[in-house]
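Continuing the batch. This is chain 6 of the set; chains 1 through 5 are on the previous pages. Same settings as before, nothing changed between runs. Recording input and output for traceability.
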Amino acid sequence: MDSDKTAKPSFESALAKLEAIVDSMEQGEVPLAELLAKYEEGSKLLKICETRLKDAELKIEKLKKQKDGSAAFEPFESSAAE
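Output for chain 6:
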């Protein structure tokens, strides 16, 4: 796989793109073919956002469970492999 194709935008970038897609779709002046393409892109961006949020939640839970209370950071592997 090419790393350029598998690189995903940051949460903030994906969310901004998703909001722009929703805004353009809500205006109601998008042709059907373009609307379908935007819907598909929006679905992918939503999945990226959900994955990033879930990963952040898992990191927070891991930190909460540490017994000594100190923040010992370890490399974190995402459970969602893509």
